[in-house]
User: What shape does this take?
Amino acid sequence: MTAPHTIYRSQIGSYLSYPVKFSELCDLLSPAMEERGIGVSFSGVNVPRQNEIRDNYPIVAAIYRANNPFPFREDCTWEIEVSPVPRAIRNQVREVLLPALPTHILPWLIAKRTSGWILTYHAIRVQFDTASKQLLFHEHNEI
Assistant: This one.
């Protein structure tokens, strides 16, 4: 396994901010970050436009790719994608996200897996619901 590392970091507008830092992910998701050699991408794909208000904002996704289709990420079977949020709600997001990482994402990362599980794609995605100011979790398991 490789050490946790940043795969890439997208440049984002000044009205956006990433809700968690790489060092915080490493601290909150240890020992999984080291054991799995998780790559972290700070993705600026599908970000809200300036002054756009959404009901839900994607925040974090923990992903396992059995057959990684991205040649530039061939060493990253495990990945965490962090998406930016409007700077105005960053503190609200952090308030619920930071405690949720070790209680919801870490157990998913370190769970014992069957040999069948490791042959397919899996993800747990976290969104921030602006109405309730809570996190929404969605687990995807490819069959």
